[in-house]
Automatic annotation (TrEMBL):
Transmembrane segments: 6-30
Catalytic EC class: hydrolase
Record's protein name: endopeptidase La
E.C. number: 3.4.21.53
GO BP annotations listed: proteolysis
Catalysed transformations (reactions): Hydrolysis of proteins in presence of ATP
Organism: Cytobacillus spartinae
Family the UniProt entry places it in: Belongs to the peptidase S16 family.
Length: 341
């Protein structure tokens, strides 16, 4: 075999190995700057007021790296590498993680609506739809019969209104008893019979082995629609609440500014910590945001706000970084702004 043919063969083998290795992911997650997206096209309050400026959510891009993207992340100042255990819970599958992130987004929308409508003095009601399956315990009766994302709305043919009602009903059963669960999966109603079993960590309690939360819709007038598609996680909740509130009231609290930000929102209006604040600052700066709201965490030494200020200084942005602990604080800050000319 000639040296040229050997060389070509080695090059081909090397190229094949490179191609194959690009599909092998490492046990890490890499986050990088995502986007800053205007909320007005995403959120629509029926007959809501228009605004001269805009509120924007900010995102990060998160995924599992191969060896090449891992090396690139190592060399990048504003890409972060996390071990799987820092992102996914112990024994949580990729599917369960995705379902949990979508549920957190759903909860953040619910809380944002509650906060905004209550601030505007508009009543908030609820329509309960059952319980939402977040995860399945391996080895328990639900394993192999239910999936993360299933919505259970009947047990033994009886409709219930909350996760507490469901848990109370199941908890009085005896080991070996069977219950019939009616649930919805991908818009199809199904039914399954499952035996209850004691939990390994507490033999005095029985269940089917699912982690669950209430599945409910907020009922408000005027109606509001929030189209988040496949965006997951709770970190846009605070910005949702500002956009919803601004469409509910006649006064435009954007004052003509481009306002980005991040933070979870609780039903009482508390703004909470999120991950990836550095990457979100970069995303907001790229689209020319004037103001960025960052969770202050009551002045904690390692707060999101302090990390945001450091990143803003590092990249030399003119964007104003504003610390915020509550929805009310943000509203007062905005109302005191001099309108943009």
């Amino acid at each position: 075999m000639s040296k040229r043919l050997i060389f070509r063969s080695l090059i081909l083998i090397f190229a094949i190995l490179l191609f194959i290795s690009s599909f092998i992911t490492l046990p890490y997650y890499v986050s990088k700057p995502g986007m800053a997206k205007e909320l007005a096209p995403i959120i629509e309050v029926e007959n809501g007021y228009e605004e001269d400026g805009s509120f924007m959510l900010t995102t990060i891009r998160m995924g599992k790296p191969n060896i090449y993207t891992y090396v690139m992340a190592k060399m990048s100042e504003y890409q972060e590498i996390y071990p799987e255990s820092a992102i996914r819970r112990e024994e949580e599958s990729e599917e369960e993680y995705s379902v949990r992130q979508l549920h957190l987004m759903s909860s953040s929308k619910t809380y944002a609506i509650e906060v905004a409508y209550k601030k505007a003095g508009i009543p908030v009601n609820y329509h309960y739809k059952g319980v939402y399956v977040l995860s399945i315990m391996e080895g328990m009766p639900a394993d192999g019969k239910l999936l993360p994302g299933d919505r259970i709305f009947k047990v033994d043919g009886i409709e219930f209104k909350s996760s507490n009602e469901f848990i109370e009903y199941v908890s009085v059963k005896q080991p070996g008893d069977k219950i019939s669960l009616t649930f919805e999966r991908k818009n199809k109603v199904e039914e399954v019979s499952i035996e209850v079993k004691p939990f390994s960590n507490d033999v005095n309690k029985v269940g089917v082995g699912i982690s669950l939360v209430d599945d409910k819709d907020v009922v408000v007038e005027p109606e509001v629609n929030i189209d988040t598609s496949d965006i997951g996680g709770p970190s846009a909740g605070f910005m949702f609440s500002l956009e919803i509130y601004n469409q509910l009231i006649e006064e435009d609290i954007t004052r003509g500014y481009e306002i980005a930000g991040t933070g979870t929102i609780s039903p009482d209006g508390t703004v909470g910590r999120i991950g990836g604040i550095e990457q979100k600052i970069i995303a907001a700066d790229k689209v020319g945001a004037d103001i960025f709201f960052a969770p202050n965490e009551e002045g904690a030494e390692d707060s999101n706000y302090k990390a945001a200020v450091k990143t803003a200084e590092d990249i030399g942005t003119n964007m104003k970084i504003v610390p915020v602990d509550t929805f009310e604080e943000a509203i007062q800050f905005l109302k005191n702004l001099t309108p943009e000319k």
